[in-house]
Specification:
- The chain is an alpha+beta fold.
- The protein is 22% helix and 31% strand.
- It has three domains: 278 residues, DD-peptidase/beta-lactamase superfamily (Beta-lactamase); 79 residues; 85 residues, Lipocalin, CATH 2.40.128.
- It is built from 13 helices and 31 strands.
- The strands form seven sheets. Strands 16-17-18-19-20-21-22-23 form an eight-stranded antiparallel beta barrel.
């Protein structure tokens, strides 16, 4: 494995940095803040490509903002540059603020984190088990994810999506993914509900409460929750993606807040990180509770804390969260014991903020990090030459036994390729049967057990497990038995299952065709992120409906209506 310093030097060697000379290893601890800033500037200089979106970055250390800079453009149409004061939509980095607002209300004596959510939002269904605010804040509620539900119901994520839309779909849920507290599964729904709890308990809008109780006291003057999609925001960054080497606008029209929609700057998030690393005396209990990892009803401790994730990063205790909406890509990592934090905000869908945060962390904390990296977290790492026969033994269809979603793994162009919901990634071989998703902190470990090959995908959140299955094949006559119209009362939407050139497709009037590829008996793989698994249900040999699943929504019922 590469040493961290060697990796940084390798990247720097590809840049022309006039006058910059790194000290040798023995002098590493003597690098001052100015020199570190020059190194970070060099690391990020590739983001200053003319006519391209980019990023805003901030670093805090020992209670001070020690680095901030902007790269690339905030607006391509008007050639406006990114700066540390550019306002970004930071997506799921919002969640920690939502939890903090709830815990402030608890400190005021207005609620308890262990209260039943239906005390505050009684229109939610009674699923037979109490869902607490703590369940919502730790992704253990079992509630289906709002974005996956909307996608399955025929919505596009660039539609105007209001808080009221989300509450309506949540109140129509017929089942939970699992009983509250029994499992971890990331759910944006819980944080939209927490934002609504803050509003109903405080008597203000969620944004008004956050400004009064959080942002103003911390001097975060450019921060607010964007709950009105028509609001004009000065100095904001717009988001983009690339398609065939052309940049295109990635539209975001959310009018909801809690799970997302925090508008802020890199420097304002630096102020938040300074506070969270060393909170005021009266807020220490609140922050300590936020930082504490949650437990399942079994007693198992998970990586999720409240609105954040806790992990061990190269031997150091780290608290982090990332975000991705439209073309925004954000990442914030705190190292409380070192009183250090790094914030990376991007406005380009192909941008990888976590990778850049890793590089920046290596610059500032290199002498404290474990010398050998467990993973090569740098984009320039190339796949070593591997015997094709070795790769082929991992090929196949892998099915999650809990939610029936599946992943296809195949060898393409001498690479092991992981395919999921229409997305593909070429894996890097690390050692033995361990592979890595380049530019991320995600690995996949293959094992031959239970008489079958298994694959465990290890993420900064929780691991996901799959078992290789033998795909079944169907004749045209067999496939015709699945065709028909299927209606979900929960989602108030219909899919038409049809044959198209000999293949099964699920057609929706608004979002188009979903290709259904045979997986196991009566089970098909979908190629959309919101519908990755369709399992048909038969009674007395006749198809009566199907259960649709994605990574965050399990087993939504669609009844065959003709």
């Amino acid at each position: 494995m590469k040493n961290i310093k060697l990796a940084v030097l390798a990247l720097l060697s590809s840049l022309v940095v006039s006058g910059l000379v790194l000290p040798d290893a023995d002098a590493e601890t003597d690098i001052n803040i100015t020199e570190k800033a020059r190194i970070v500037d060099a690391l990020l200089e590739d983001l200053n490509t003319p006519g391209s979106p980019g990023a805003a970055v901030a670093v805090v250390y020992d209670g001070s903002l020690v680095y901030s800079n902007g790269f690339g453009l905030a607006n391509l149409e008007y050639n406006i540059p990114n700066t540390p004061q550019t306002i970004y939509h930071v997506a799921s980095v919002s969640k920690q603020f939502t939890v903090y607002a709830v815990l402030l209300l608890e400190q005021m004596g207005k609620l308890s984190i262990d209260d039943d959510i239906r005390i505050f939002i009684p229109e939610l269904p009674d699923f037979g088990d109490v869902i607490t605010l703590r369940h919502l804040a730790s992704h253990t509620s079992g509630l289906r994810d709002q974005w996956n539900l909307l996608g399955m119901a025929g919505w596009r994520l660039d539609d105007v999506i209001t808080k009221e839309h989300i509450l309506t779909y949540t109140s129509r849920q017929k089942e939970l993914n699992f009983p509250p507290g029994e499992q971890y599964l990331y759910s944006n729904t819980g944080f939209t509900l927490l934002g609504e709890v803050v509003a109903r308990v405080s008597g203000m809008t969620f944004n008004e409460f956050a400004i009064q109780q959080i942002f103003k006291p911390l001097g975060m003057t450019n921060t607010f929750f964007y709950d009105d999609h028509e609001r004009i925001v000065s100095n904001r960054a717009y988001s983009y993606y690339s398609n065939e080497d052309l940049f295109k606008k990635s539209i975001l029209s959310y009018a909801n807040a809690g799970a997302t929609s925090l508008f802020t700057t890199a420097e304002d998030l630096g102020r938040w990180a300074i506070f969270m690393n060393r909170p005021y005396a009266d807020k220490v209990p609140v922050v300590e509770l936020m930082n504490r990892q949650a437990k399942l009803t079994s007693g198992e401790t998970i990586r999720g804390a409240l609105g954040q994730f806790v992990d061990n990063y190269r031997g150091l205790h780290r608290i982090q969260h990332g975000g991705a909406d439209a073309g925004y890509r954000t990442f914030m990592a705190r190292f409380p014991e070192q009183n250090f934090a790094v914030i990376v905000l991007g406005n380009y869908a192909q941008f990888n903020p976590a990778m850049y945060a890793s590089l920046i962390t290596a610059v500032y904390l290199e002498d404290l990090l474990e010398s050998d990296e467990p993973l090569p977290l740098f984009s320039f790492v190339e796949n070593p030459g591997i015997d094709i026969d070795f790769l082929k033994k991992f090929e196949g269809l892998y099915v999650n036994q809990i939610n029936a979603t599946s992943r296809n793994i195949s060898v393409k162009n001498n690479d092991l390729t992981f395919s999921s919901g229409g997305h593909h990634a070429n894996l890097i071989h690390v050692s033995d049967s361990l592979f890595w998703f380049p530019g991320t902190e995600i690995t996949i470990l293959f094992k031959d057990q239970y008489g079958k090959m298994t694959a465990s995908v290890n993420t900064p959140q929780e691991p996901i497990h799959y078992i290789r299955e033998n795909p079944v094949s169907y004749s045209k006559e067999d496939l015709e038995t699945f065709t028909g119209n299927y209606f979900s009362e929960e989602l108030q939407t219909t899919y038409s299952i049809e044959l198209n050139e000999g293949n099964l497709v699920a057609r929706h009037l608004r979002t188009g065709d979903i290709s259904l590829v045979p997986a196991s008996e009566n089970h098909f793989r979908g190629d959309r992120w919101y519908m990755q698994g369709v399992r048909f249900i038969k009674e007395n040999g006749e198809v009566t409906g199907f259960r649709a699943s994605s990574s965050r929504v399990w087993n939504v019922w669609f009844e065959r209506i003709q």
